[in-house]
Amino acid sequence: AAGVIQSPRHLIKEKRETATLKCYPIPRHDTVYWYQQGPGQDPQFLISFYEKMQSDKGSIPDRFSAQQFSDYHSELNMSSLELGDSALYFCASSQKFGQGLEKNTEAFFGQGTRLTVV
Amino acid sequence: GENVEQHPSTLSVQEGDSAVIKCTYSDSASNYFPWYKQELGKGPQLIIDIRSNVGEKKDQRIAVTLNKTAKHFSLHITETQPEDSAVYFCAASRGKAAGNKLTFGGGTRVLVKP
């Protein structure tokens, strides 16, 4: 089965440079989430998009921005990179399903992009 | 916001024994509780989830229980195998209607010794 595709898998940037991470959700998934995971830490929610509109925002720095395009893929743009931005960045996707009061859905994660800022 | 605590942080078990990981959450509006397994260098993999209208769910060697009153949920792995060694994360969410962002616990590193 198709999974969430992230590119690139590894990225090395210097301080103050910019980086763009890409995420291609599972086909027919309408929601994309971005998470940041530092070494030995749990994933921290950054931002999410539903049907190309920002749906929620977490601890995302102002230096970062993201968007979801008409084909549902998403890009995370990171500017003025700092050493502390070095981390694994995961994208997850989900599709609304189910009826009733609890419209929960499963989120599937990609393999991540390892960003190293030097 | 939501706060999820997970215990223990590391767990070493003998192959064939059971492993139990416990999580507590703070937001009474959370209604979806997934568990993820993360192997080194890979993304989190959804292994089981439970919704607030269910108290227990089982899938082969894996089971999850939820106590909404006490705001805690647990993962049980029976007959552990070396391939179960990984980091396990619990998470909580208010559901898709509220954006479905996941708040993760701190993770449990499970080591299954042959």
Termini separation of chain B comes to 41 Å
Mean pLDDT across the residues of chain B is: 94
Structural class of chain A: mainly beta
Point out poorly predicted stretches of chain B. Answer: none
Beta-strand segment tally of chain A: 11
Oligomer: heterodimer
Shape of chain B: globular
Helical/strand content category of chain B: mainly beta
Order of helices and strands of chain B: EEEEEEEEEEE
Helix content of chain B: under 10%
**Rg measurement of chain B, Å:** 14 Å
Low-confidence runs of chain A: 98-103
Number of strands of chain B: 11
Main interface by residue count: A-B, 28 and 28 residues
The chain-level mean pLDDT of chain A equals 91
Question: What's the end-to-end separation of chain A, in Å?
Answer: 36 Å
If you had to describe this structure to a student in words, what would you say it looks like?
By secondary structure, chain A is mainly β. Chain A is built from no helices and 11 strands. Chain A has strands at 5-7, 10-13, 19-24, 31-37, 44-50, 53-57, 64-68, 74-78, 87-94, 108-109, 113-117. In chain A, strands 2, 4, 5, 6, 9, 10 and 11 form a 7-stranded mixed sheet that branches. Chain A has a 4-stranded antiparallel sheet with strand order 1-3-8-7, with no helix packed on it. In chain A, strand 5 (44-50) and strand 6 form a beta hairpin. Chain B is an all-beta fold. Chain B is 0% helix and 54% strand. In chain B, the strands form 2 sheets. In chain B, strands 2, 4, 5, 9, 10 and 11 form a 6-stranded mixed sheet that branches. The termini of chain B are far apart. The chains are: A mainly beta (118), B mainly beta (114). At the A-B interface, strand 4, strand 5 and strand 10 of A face strand 4, strand 5 and strand 10 of B.
